[in-house]
Amino acid sequence: MMNQPPVNEIEVKAGCRYMLVTSVARRARQIMLSGEDIGNEKPVSIAVEELNAGKLDIHYPDEYRKTSEY
Length: 70
Prior knowledge:
Blueprint: H1 7-14, H2 17-34, H3 43-53, H4 62-68
C-alpha cells in the first residue's frame, strides 16, 4: 500500500529526505541486481520496509557530518 509507512516517519530514521531517497534507491538497485526472488513486490517497497524495520544501515558521508554540526 502506498505511503505505508508515512514518509515523515521513515525520514526521521534516515535523518533527512536526501539520505532517505538515496539509501532506498541504492538498496533497491542492490535487490534488483542480486537476483533475489521477490515475487510481485517492488524493490523500492522492500527497501523501504527494510529501512523501517531497522535492517538497512545508513552511512553518512564525512561532509554531511561536518556541515550538520553547529
